[in-house]
Specification:
35% of the residues lie in helices and 22% in strands. By secondary structure, it is an alpha/beta fold.
Length: 137
């Protein structure tokens, strides 16, 4: 897998999709992550997850022509339903491997990240957790 001109190009037999849940906001700049992830991975390799009532998020996804899913606001764990919906959508669109990101994740070396995802996929993993420095767990 290689990054080329900000777009994802797969050199092994797999299709990668980035899952990007976005917190709802009334501030347009909160949705800048959508454009950022499209520039890093390509429009067809990003699926955005939104709360069902996030009209501004829906507008931004439509403006950027990127796939998105919405989950009904439910307790206690809305994010789990959203993750599953994004993963199922990615699978239905032909994804072999997915990685879950956050709307506050900064990617420092996409080429290295994609190599790591390809290596992890080759070991049999299909849902990759990304180690991040903003909110390390």
């Amino acid at each position: 897998m290689h990054a080329h001109s900000g777009k994802l190009r797969v050199s092994i037999n797999m299709r990668f999709v980035a899952l990007l849940p976005v917190k709802p906001s009334s501030v347009l700049s909160s949705y800048a992550c959508i454009e950022y992830f499209i520039s890093e991975f390509g429009r067809k390799n990003v699926i955005v997850g939104l709360n069902e009532d996030d009209a501004l998020g829906r507008d931004e996804c439509q403006r950027h022509q990127v796939a998105f899913v919405c989950a009904e606001c439910s307790e206690p764990f809305l994010i789990c339903a959203l993750w599953m919906s994004m993963a199922e959508t990615a699978y239905s669109k032909g994804a072999d491997v997915v990685a879950l990101f956050g709307d506050d994740v900064e990617l420092h070396n996409v080429t290295s990240l994609l190599r790591e995802i390809a290596s992890t996929y080759a070991e049999g993993y299909k849902c990759i957790a990304i180690k991040e420095t903003n909110h390390p767990s």
